[in-house]
Fold this protein.
Amino acid sequence: MVREEVKKIGGRYSCSKEGCDFRSNRLKDFKKCNSGFFCKKHYAEKMKKHREYLKRDVCGIRTKKQQIKDWEEARKLKASRKKIVLPRLPIIPGSKLNRPSPKISSLGMYLKKEEKQVLYYKYVGQGYSSQNANKKVKESVEFLSCLIKKLRGKKKTEKEINVIFKEEFAKLGSM
């Protein structure tokens, strides 16, 4: 029965793979597979393809090249999403947006965080506790903001206000 499935040409057995010229008198030189008898070379190829199929399709294990390819596709997709930019409204010359102008930090019209820290460390160095130093810093900030409001009420220029502000800040630091 086994011998009937193998192609027998001229008293010799041949491989079931089309285009294979391997022939042998012995049946030991062939391996049985579902689709027929194959020579050892073609049987190994068939099994290799089947193992690859099991790894890639059944188990879902990808090759390094496939992973790199997937990563590149994901990067391209992500980059294309970032490139979508909504069109901006045209700027009309002479028009102003309704937003308040920010205070210019170079004019020194308010105390920055670093300046508050300088005052705090000076007060702590003078012997105040941390709570009292915090209170003193808050008082000095309120004093300077009230001073600026008074000077603006007197219609002083920004340069004069800036000079007076810096002088008062220096006095607070030296106390």
Notes: The two ends are 113 Å apart (CA to CA). The beta strands are 7-9, 12-14, 23-24, 30-33, 36-39. The longest strand covers residues 30-33.
